[in-house]
Amino acid sequence: xxxxxxxxxxxxxxxxxxxxxxxxxxxxxxxxxxxxxxxxxxxxxxxxxxxxxxxxxxxxxxxxxxxxxxxxxxxxxxxxxxxxxxxxxxxxxxxxxxxxxxxxxxxxxxxxxxxxxxxxxxxxxxxxxxxxxxxxxxxxxxxxxxxxxxxxxxxxxxxxxxxxxxxxxxxxxxxxxxxxxxxxxxxxxxxxxxxxxxxxxxxxxxxxxxxxxxxxxxxxxxxxxxxxxxxxxx
Length: 234
Prior knowledge:
The chain has two domains: 2-71, no CATH class; 87-227, no CATH class. It contains twelve helices and no strands. It is mainly alpha-helical. The protein has helices at 2-25, 27-33, 38-42, 46-71, 96-99, 102-111, 119-144, 149-158, 165-171, 181-189, 194-207, 216-227.
């Protein structure tokens, strides 16, 4: 069943491409059946139209695959750990670990429990996780810089508080940036949950305010630790 769900997006994209090929190879029959496409065909070079349509369909297929990986249900193996899911997110001696309490742990576990909770529960838990991370980021900025509470919250909302695109996009408000699609696709190709990776990067970005000498390597290490529990299941 999981294999059928994985092949469905490819089947849809292949069917759409087949329609374009039929339109290109048998225009007379298609125009007789659907006269409204005559204007479109007369305004475009046939080869250019076919190439453009193919590129568009490949892109649509990729988007469908990404969306299914992001929103689809996953079944976790019986041997995969389901407790203390947040432990791998924090380095030794983490300051942020003390700022994020048991509520964060519970929400994060629910948000990443693809086998035991419904999609609505996961989405609600993700919103709560992001909200608490945002509050912690703003508090940390205020605590370690000269910014007041409003300025710190605004920096988090606009994404200006960090140069880490994953962290900035995850915690930004509706008017702020989002996580770049290329990074999301890259996480999926590497078999990692983009949300888990984003949380790991956000925590590392927050901790960097306490340790300004930290490098991007620490964020990568945190993402590696967060993704280690997933294995190759993605």
